[in-house]
Amino acid sequence: MTATPPEGGTDYNWLPEGFTVREVQTNGVRLSAAVGGSGPVLVLLHGWPQTGRAWARVMPTLAENHTVVVPDLRGTGSSERPADGYLKTNQVKDMRGLVEGLGLSGPIVVVGHDIGAMVAFAWAVHRPEDLTAAVVLDCFLPGVDLEDSMNVVKGGSWHFGFFAAPHIPEMLFAGHELEFVQATFGARTTPGTFTDEELEFYARSYTGHDRARGGFEHYRALLEDGRENTAVLEKGKITTPLLLIGGKDSTGDQTIKALAPHAEKLTSYVADTSHFVAEEAPEWFVEKLTDFLANAGAKV
């Protein structure tokens, strides 16, 4: 595993000062990541339909006390788009290999939002020995409450099943990327959170069949993700200190209540935001994260 400068992909004009982009070949995939700061390792995992840019508003502050690693998940941004490997446990292997390939060592704090939160959660469930703490931002979790949230018969969200369907979402997505991003972000965030330039950036990041497919593959793994998590959760509680934040106008306290019986050390908040907590309330998020890490005994 070696870290090299990037060869292309998504542009990095948004990159905060002090960060550079590196690439690592690991676990059968080439991963791109922005890296900056110094201190204990803090890995930030984005959701869909975004890239590592999702963390741009908090990266400079967090880099004051941490070595901040901000990858594009497999299938997204400037990372490679393999045909398979999208199980969240396999993406934990991606992240472990990325950190090693960058020449960094743990213990690690991982923060995830949306799909990235599912990877962070899988890391805490399946490889707790790697982590000082894990943070989950506004996300239904496979094996905890996601399956009920996917069930449209019970009023669940239709998009989980639609995005997981083979071929069809890529076909319908084509040519409508910007419209989709505008509608999705507009419905799930505080008005004015994202600029037109940011929305156009994310639309470009998923334009084209292969870029769209790389995003949807994360959804196609969800049911197996749940089965894998359940198999471990049935054997005992999660020992990794967890911070779980739900947006008031999004997941609220649903996942907090569902996860509580499974976690030994759970800190939780309902933020005065919608889905995009770290972008809608970056200063509040950094404050809560810093407090949590101090109380969890992690280096801050």
Descriptive account of the structure:
Strand 4, helix 1 and strand 5 form a beta-alpha-beta unit. The protein has a single domain, classed as Alpha/Beta hydrolase fold, catalytic domain (Rossmann fold). The protein has a nine-stranded mixed sheet with strand order 1-2-3-5-4-6-7-8-9, sandwiched between helices. Helix 2 crosses helix 3 and helix 7 packs across helix 8. The N terminus is likely disordered. By secondary structure, the chain is α/β, with parallel strands linked by helices. The chain is built from 13 helices and nine strands. This is Alpha/beta fold hydrolase. Keywords: Hydrolase. GO terms for molecular function: hydrolase activity. InterPro entries: AB_hydrolase_1, AB_hydrolase_fold, Epox_hydrolase-like. It holds the Pfam family Abhydrolase_6.
Strand elements, count: 9
Distance between the termini: 28 Å
The CATH fourth-level homologous superfamily: Alpha/Beta hydrolase fold, catalytic domain
**Total individual domains:** 1
State which percent range the strand residues make up: 15-25%
- Provide the succession of SSEs: EEEEHEHEHEHHHHHHHEHEHH
Task: Return Rg in Å.
Answer: 17 Å
Q: Which residue ranges are poorly predicted, with pLDDT under 50 across at least 5 consecutive positions?
A: 1-9
Largest sheet: 9 strands, mixed
Oligomer: single chain
Strand order of the largest sheet: 1-2-3-5-4-6-7-8-9
Count of individual helical segments: 13
CATH first level: which class?
Alpha Beta
Task: Give the mean pLDDT.
Answer: 93
CATH topology, which one? Rossmann fold
The CATH architecture term is 3-Layer(aba) Sandwich
Q: Which structural class fits the helix and strand makeup?
A: alpha/beta
Tell me the overall shape: globular
Helix content: 25-40%
